[in-house]
Amino acid sequence: MEMLLSLQSFIFISLLSLYLYLYFFTSYKRPAVGFKHYPVVGSLPGYLRNRHRFLDWSTEILKHCPTGTAIFYRPGKIHGVITANPANVEHILKTNFENYPKGQRFVTLLEDFLGRGIFNSDGELWKVQRKTASYEFNTKSLRNFVMDSVRFETLSRLVPILTKASRTGLALDLQDILERYAFDNICKVAFNFDPGCLGGDGTAGSEFMRAFEDAATLSSGRFRYAFRHMWSVK
């Protein structure tokens, strides 16, 4: 019996050693393409080092992939395909859109922020909401919106702020100014509400915009937890 156990232990250790040797030997010898995967933990080590800059990190990875596409694995059955290939993007978002639902994890993580509206629904519920939205966001209504709301926002708010800055030499945070400009316009067309974030000196009415940004940041951050249910504890 002891001899049998010793033999089994020897075989197990030998196979494990061979696997680790082949895995790491081939990993170091061939050029790294895509996300680096480790036994059991998958891409988790690299993810933990780069999740604060996930967009930059994934962009760097995809730049070295011949197809512009890479597979990503994390513990807890979290895996997916990340692509920057225009043909793949068109296939997913247009050609074969119905074959790529958002999925329950996506819906659950964003439900507090987006509810079950058109941006956070699948299947028949999405179709119903899309049909409803199509009556509001048609070519004529969008053209009228551009002619009226965007023109007003541009001429009465954006241009005066830029003109004043050019005359006085005032330094502007252009990204903040354009964010406010875009947020005012989006709220008008989506909610028929003018938050006036670009009103006055360009710093007024920002409470709702900042709250919206905080909610978006917190909601998107749920996807970046190392373990999928940790966000619910917080």
Automatic annotation (TrEMBL):
Pfam families: p450 (PF00067). It comes from the Eukaryota. This is Cytochrome P450. It comes from Citrus sinensis. Its cofactor is heme. SUPFAM superfamilies: Cytochrome P450 (SSF48264). The chain crosses the membrane at residues 6-26. Belongs to the cytochrome P450 family. One of its GO terms (molecular function) is iron ion binding. Keywords: Heme, Iron, Membrane, Metal-binding, Monooxygenase, Oxidoreductase, Transmembrane, Transmembrane helix.
